[in-house]
Design a protein that fits this description.
Blueprint lengths: L2 H5 L7 H23 L2 H17 L10 H33 L7 H19 L3 H11 L5 H8 L3 H33 L3
Helix pairs in contact: 2-3, 2-4, 3-4, 5-8, 6-8, 7-8
Length: about 190
């Protein structure tokens, strides 16, 4: 398949065409992704994931633009999602540090922060599977409710309900740990 054929409106997505696109565009897409991510290894992994996703959905996929345009748009969307996920993770990490009362890195405070993070992740893992998966996609991966609904093929309202259930369960389960953290902070500031 030539570049000109790959740039025409695509009718057929199959293993052969995906392999040809991979051979033709992989390196170019890695360079393109690296402009967003500034991390070549992560860029390569992300482009690989785009091709794996393309392969997994080849039977149901209908591309109305050129293969090249579709691939570049898919890589761009994946890069933006990755950046959003990193920002969301950093924000949650900062919130946990804030809950511990200080930004200094003394040993006791690091231990308290790690303990609270452990409790949070343990509580998340104890959620029912569907609830846990939706919560992680929203709060850790940074996907919005509509993106999750589209990905899981469920209604947006179902996503909202599951996130609400997860937050309620986490509040109930983490209340003792948060109270302990607050009390330790108050006691340490009474010197």
């Amino acid at each position: 398949m030539t570049h000109q054929q790959a740039n025409q409106t695509l009718v057929l997505v199959n293993e052969t065409s995906i392999e040809q696109w991979y051979t033709t565009y992989y390196s170019l897409l890695c360079v393109y992704a690296n402009k967003f991510l500034k991390d070549l290894d992560l860029s390569r992994e992300l482009v690989q994931d785009v091709f794996v996703n393309l392969y997994d959905k080849k039977e149901a996929l209908s591309i109305h633009t050129s293969a090249k345009s579709h691939l570049y748009q898919s890589v761009k969307n994946a890069c933006l999602s990755s950046i959003k996920q990193k920002q969301t993770y950093a924000l949650h990490h900062e919130n946990i540090k804030y809950l511990n009362g200080d930004y200094s890195y003394e040993t006791d405070e690091l231990y308290g922060q790690s303990e609270l993070e452990y409790e949070l992740y343990k509580a998340i893992e104890e959620l029912p599977k569907k609830c846990r998966d939706i919560f992680k996609m929203n709060r850790i991966e940074g996907l919005n409710n509509q993106e999750i609904a589209d990905y899981l093929n469920i209604s947006k309202r179902t996503v909202e309900t599951q996130i609400s259930k997860a937050l309620k369960a986490l509040r109930n389960q983490l209340a003792p740990s948060l109270l302990k953290t607050i009390l330790l902070f108050l006691l340490s500031s009474i010197e």
